[in-house]
Amino acid sequence: MKVVKWLLAIMLTLxxxxxxxxxxxxxxxxxxxxxxxxVKKQTGRDLQITEDLSWSVFPSLGIKLGGISLxxxxxxxxxxxxxxxxxxxxVALMPLFSQQIEVDLLKLDGLTLNLVTQxxxxxxxxxxxxxxxxxxxxxxxxxxxxxxxxxxxxxNIGGIELTNTNINLIDIATxxxxxxxxxxxxxxxxxxxxxxxFAYEFSATLPDMTVTSSGQGKLKIDQDLKLVTINxxxxxxxxxxxxxxxxxxxxxxxxxxxxxxxxxxxxxQLTALSAMDxxxxxxIKVNYANSIPKIAMNLDVGDIDVDALFPKQEExxxxxxxxxxxxxxxxxxxxxxxxxxxxxxxxxxxxxxxxMLTQNxxxxxxxxxxxxxxxxxxxxxxxxxLALSAKLDGRKAxxxxxxxxxxxxxxxxxxxxxxxxxxxxxxxxxxxxxxSGASLIPDNxxxxxxxxxxxxxxxxxxxxxxxxxxxxxxxxxxxGDLSADSKEELKTDFTSLTGSFTMKDAVVTNPDLAMAAxxxxxxxxxxxxxxSEALDxxxxxxxxxxxxxQGEAVDESLKGVDIPLTIKGTFQEPKFGxxxxxxxxxxxxxxxxxxxxxxxxxxxxxxGI
Length: 609
What we know:
By secondary structure, the chain is of the alpha+beta class. It has helices spanning 2-25, 32-43, 131-151, 313-319, 412-420, 442-447, 467-478, 580-606, and strands spanning 47-49, 54-56, 60-71, 80-92, 100-109, 112-117, 154-157, 160-171, 176-187, 190-191, 196-205, 210-221, 227-240, 248-260, 265-275, 278-287, 294-305, 341-353, 356-368, 371-381, 384-393, 400-411, 425-438, 450-463, 491-504, 507-516, 520-529, 535-543, 562-569, 574-578.
């Protein structure tokens, strides 16, 4: 017991001695000139500490600083690079003797950082040296830090308060200023191995938008300082700017985060995300042990209406600059593809783009070493299926791409109406196309694309023309009935429509179009220019059934006659034409056949047969 009493007496005497020494014989302000001179010699900058440095000793050892300012390089504006209104750090004294750190309070108020970039490229950081010294001391420092980490028994913090922190990024060349403001950050009672509450309020002013964010959660750091856990981290974000959908975007996010500092990995569990009527869940894993971080994302998304995210075409036209440019003339910069190692697995309930609705998305995509690979995309599309794979190579200045696309059992009429406002064809369509090309400039996408494919449409209709009625009307007019006309619907029903095609220099060439219908057979070839939307088809129509209309006598005079048919015009307004010469020949053939029959009947009669 006496030994214990003596030890307590010695420690108390030591504490009292330190207190007396620090308060009476050790004046921190005596070091201010030395600190200012050291900063001047090291950086060439002026450091100012306008307020007196002060101690707090018992029950905590602390230092309070105020009125701190560090200048920017000469002729920079603003003149100060860093300003601090007040900094306070209080550490409990007694636990230090048992290698325990208990921080009563860490407080930083009024930090302002002005980071300037001049027209000549010089920045606020130019002239700040000391890297070599730091590098030279790194091994020892690292060893000391490791030793301290091993020796550290506990770390207890009564609280952390960061208030009124502002970072200004000033670019003189572009005359822009970006301001990031941390209104507050608070951390409650904190100990290693236990969860502590935290909260923040943040805002940013960017050239084209303003952003505000607030959040709260629970933070835990394990005893060996290798694992950081953040639970129930909820964030609310708002961004406003003319370039944003409806000029304002709100987002609510709830996540769980696990950071393994020794393995250099981050795992983020996205419990809930809500933004612009989009809901999502999933997880994101990051491994930053290598020079290029490896990121894996698994996302499950609800309904996405891409059209609602952007202004309507009328608004875009009103706000668009009045010029003759049709699109960018330079290739997009894809160098970022070389700086990421990303894999994405995405499922989506539905995605609507340009009025075209797809459902039940399954997407697998990777981006690595300059290559963007869409290994698989499947979706339900207008009662059918879509399957797509593609690859984009951004390793060179001129990007290249290739793709393989299939549509199976798609209801083609609403698809064409929604995608291109074209009412030309109906039926259940299957479509295959493989292609490749170079350049992502819009004007070059069509010109540089080489593709081959085939299509088949079953039980459909060709709109805008009634081929049997058109042939019948032309035939009647040739017989002298110039008033011949019909009010039948302008469509041609068919049981199958098939063909193959190639695409080069923005022209689709279809050499083997074939259509089978109840009354006619149609075959031929033609081209479609996807740049000008011009059509040029030459077809041959064969009549296989009676072309008589309702209530008309059966007329099979054209059965077996090949009638040339042309399709001109554009995708929006196709123009169908018929070669009347074939009709005349068919009519003459019919009259000649009748004359032959009369002659034969008369001859047989005379012969008494």
